[in-house]
Specification:
Layout lengths: L1 E7 L2 E6 L9 E10 L2 H9 L1 E2 L2 E2 L9 E6 L4 E4 L2 E2 L5 H4 L10 E2 L12 E5 L3 E3 L6 H5 L1 H14 L6 E5 L3 H12 L4 E5 L3 H9 L10 E6 L4 H10 E9 L12 H7 L2 E4 L7 H9 L9 E6 L3 H10 L4 E5 L1
Parallel strand pairs: 12-13, 12-14, 14-15, 15-16, 17-18
Antiparallel strand pairs: 1-2, 3-6, 3-10, 3-18, 4-5, 6-7, 7-11, 8-9
Length: about 325
């Protein structure tokens, strides 16, 4: 099978490797669609993400869907928690310190033609959800988890700072949830235009009940704090390049803000599938280009340029 393996920063090579052999409890999946995530771009551009660094050639990609060898269309949950630690036993599987995560550390991800993955983390896709949408259920799940952390009041107001794919998904979720107004901040004109198309107000706003930061920069965090009302809530979902976030403490302190940190997602795949199947969240229009697996390096280069929205690779 063909595999796209990252050997170092900006060094993504196509290899021919043996097909996977499933272990007990695993199923072989033919991968059909893989989304390129911002965290994948950290691996590609920096050779790591946060305190996790590349120690051996790695197959990246954690947003993916495919077809099992017996013909079942599935979305793949990339996170396999240990189910034994205190976090797992308390129901916080997304915080498992022993999690095995596709395309991260020592665990190869989805940028290959086939992979073997635990059956418990394969989610059947209804006919109304395409393989493309199946791959984007993972970032939608991240958006749903961030939304949950926001505790939006009934009819409350919200802001989104950073209108990449997850920010654009959050805009849609906030409207579904009944937000009376969603303000969006995005410096790139084409992303700001998409935010307006999805119903967000891109004029400056403040005094908002909850603000979601989805850009991963200190400036975005400061902007989120400025937009939040006194006593409001800010959810930090962006991943900073230098594994450090710095902000003006006086703004957060004087406003008495509550700050929540978003870590991937918990058990939200069934909700994500239902929202897409019902046509309540639009994922397809967020895809700006598709590439073959052989052109994976080109796909990552385009994603790094931030000229489009979502880049998808189709093995």
């Amino acid at each position: 099978m063909l595999v796209a393996r990252l050997h170092g920063a900006a060094d993504l090579r196509i290899h021919e490797e043996a097909d996977p052999v499933p272990q007990a409890g695993e199923t072989v999946v033919r991968v059909t669609s893989v989304g390129v995530c911002g965290s994948d771009l950290h691996w590609f551009g920096e050779g790591g993400i946060g305190d996790a660094q590349l120690t051996q050639p790695l197959v990246v990609g954690h947003e993916f869907a495919g077809v099992t060898l017996d013909g079942r269309r599935v979305a793949v949950d990339p996170a396999v928690p240990c189910e034994e630690c205190p976090s797992c036993l308390r129901g916080y599987r997304n915080l498992c310190p022993h999690v095995r995560f596709a395309g991260h550390g020592q665990t190869d991800g989805g940028l290959r033609e086939y992979l073997a993955w635990p059956d418990a983390y394969l989610h059947p896709l209804p006919d109304s959800v395409s393989d493309l949408e199946g791959a984007l259920l993972e970032p939608l799940g991240v958006a749903i988890h961030a939304f949950d952390l926001g505790h939006l009041p009934l009819g409350g107001t919200a802001g989104v700072v950073g209108c990449g794919p997850i920010g654009l998904m959050l805009i849609q979720l906030l409207q579904i949830a009944g937000a009376s107004m969603v303000a969006a901040v995005e410096p790139l004109p084409h992303r700001a235009a998409k935010a307006r198309e999805l119903g967000a107000d891109t004029d400056p706003h403040g005094d908002l009940d909850v603000v979601f930061e989805v850009a991963g920069t200190d400036q975005a965090v400061d902007t989120a704090f400025e937009m939040a009302r006194p006593g409001g809530r800010v959810v930090l979902a962006g991943i900073p390049d230098e594994d450090r976030t710095v902000f003006r403490a006086s703004t957060a302190r004087r406003k008495g803000l509550t700050i929540a940190m978003a870590r991937r997602m918990n058990d939200v795949y069934p909700r994500a599938i239902k929202l897409v199947a019902q046509g309540r969240v639009d994922l397809v229009s967020l895809v700006s280009n598709r590439f073959a697996l052989q052109d994976a390096a080109k796909a990552f280069g385009e994603a790094q340029s931030r000229q489009g929205l979502k880049i998808v690779i189709e093995p």
